[in-house]
Amino acid sequence: MALRIGVVGAGGRMGRQLIQAVQTADGVELGAAFERKGSTLIGSDAGELAGIGHIGVSVEENLAACADNFDVLIDFTRPEGSLEHLACCVEKGKNVILGTTGFDDTGKAAIQAAAEKIGIVFASNYSVGVNLVFKLLEKAAKVMGDYCDIEIIEAHHRHKVDAPSGTALSMGEHIAKTLGRDLKTHGVFCREGITGERKRDEIGFSTIRAADVVGEHTVWFADIGERVEIAHKASSRMTFANGAVRAAKWIADKKQGLFDMTDVLDLNNL
Ligand SMILES: NC(=O)C1=CN([C@@H]2O[C@H](COP(=O)(O)OP(=O)(O)OC[C@H]3O[C@@H](n4cnc5c(N)ncnc54)[C@H](OP(=O)(O)O)[C@@H]3O)[C@@H](O)[C@H]2O)C=CC1
Ligand SMILES: O=C(O)C1=N[C@H](C(=O)O)C[C@H](O)C1
């Protein structure tokens, strides 16, 4: 029997891609689709919303009332919405694929607590390439990190509401962990005015927001006389959507626990 996927934020940029990805993947089907209460999209057909034609699944507004229609929920929305959806999934015993970025520490603690009751994959980026890059960054940090300047540069579309991107923060965390640094004290997120010279052990972040950029990340490991750049460029949101569907299949039989995409892709023993 096919795994039934629920998609919240069905009308969003990622929501529409997720509906398409679910409908084209093997072994899964769209069980339910949701939008915010009061949205004009409630009652519309999820397939038509996603541009793939009528599929007979209408967009609903009450997650709890329709929880019997899906096995795993995929959520790429906003932190406040995701935390409500998560509470509902704990109540109903449904596993969750969480792609939303921009959580504060309280939100992250709530996700951790929820993962004691249900299975959650929580990843800032569901593409295979970015998760490989996380591992390459650990290697580069081991070789060069103690003596070179590390800078993370990210670019996204003009509609993105959080900065730096979740992926850039994850990159910083992978590097900081490898080097025994704390990103809270070593991360530099803004430079303006008389900043003083760069501290050797800071990890800098720069953000670009422009037009329709899907998602680009470059990390510099810069020494005097040479520089290594490790970069990833996403050219389609379908790469994130396909990754999320892959994660949904992977989490389906897990009872509880907090995982990320490196677990799904089995990259942690490379
Ligand atoms: N992990 C990954 O690989 C990726 C993560 N993302 C992240 O996914 C999230 C969504 O991105 P994107 O699709 O571009 O954003 P959009 O703004 O296009 O879509 C967000 C969707 O969520 C809905 N929504 C917003 N707030 C709430 C709420 N409180 N409760 C329920 N639904 C809500 C919106 O409805 P409405 O229109 O009515 O506001 C909309 O349908 C972002 O956090 C982004 O950073 C994006 C791409 C890849
Ligand atoms: O908002 C986006 O679009 C994206 N958000 C994620 C992030 O914050 O890292 C992932 C991807 O880069 C696209």
UniProtKB/TrEMBL annotation:
Q: Dihydrodipicolinate reductase N-terminal domain location, by residue?
A: 4-126
Pathway entry: Amino-acid biosynthesis; L-lysine biosynthesis via DAP pathway; (S)-tetrahydrodipicolinate from L-aspartate: step 4/4
**CDD domains for this protein:** DHDPR_N (cd02274)
Q: Give the catalytic activity.
A: (S)-2,3,4,5-tetrahydrodipicolinate + NAD(+) + H2O = (2S,4S)-4-hydroxy-2,3,4,5-tetrahydrodipicolinate + NADH + H(+); (S)-2,3,4,5-tetrahydrodipicolinate + NADP(+) + H2O = (2S,4S)-4-hydroxy-2,3,4,5-tetrahydrodipicolinate + NADPH + H(+)
Q: Where does NAD(+) bind?
A: 9-14, 35, 99-101, 123-126
Note the Gene3D superfamilies from the entry: Dihydrodipicolinate Reductase, domain 2, NAD(P)-binding Rossmann-like Domain
The active site is formed by 156 (proton donor/acceptor), 160 (proton donor)
Report domain Dihydrodipicolinate reductase C-terminal positions. Answer: 129-265
Name the InterPro entries on file. Answer: DapB_C (IPR022663), DapB_N (IPR000846), DapB_N_CS (IPR022664), DHDPR_bac (IPR023940), NAD(P)-bd_dom_sf (IPR036291)
Annotated NADP(+) binding sites: 36
Q: Which domain of life is it from?
A: Bacteria
Keywords per UniProt: Amino-acid biosynthesis, Cytoplasm, Diaminopimelate biosynthesis, Lysine biosynthesis, NAD, NADP, Oxidoreductase
Compartments reported by the entry: Cytoplasm
- Could you state a single Gene Ontology molecular function term? 4-hydroxy-tetrahydrodipicolinate reductase
In this chain, (S)-2,3,4,5-tetrahydrodipicolinate is annotated as bound at 157, 166-167
Q: Give the EC number.
A: 1.17.1.8
Oligomeric state and interaction partners are given as: Homotetramer.
Record's family? Answer: Belongs to the DapB family.
**Functional summary from the UniProt entry:** Catalyzes the conversion of 4-hydroxy-tetrahydrodipicolinate (HTPA) to tetrahydrodipicolinate.
Q: What HAMAP family does the record point to?
A: DapB (MF_00102)
Q: What is this protein called?
A: 4-hydroxy-tetrahydrodipicolinate reductase
Q: Supply the gene name.
A: dapB
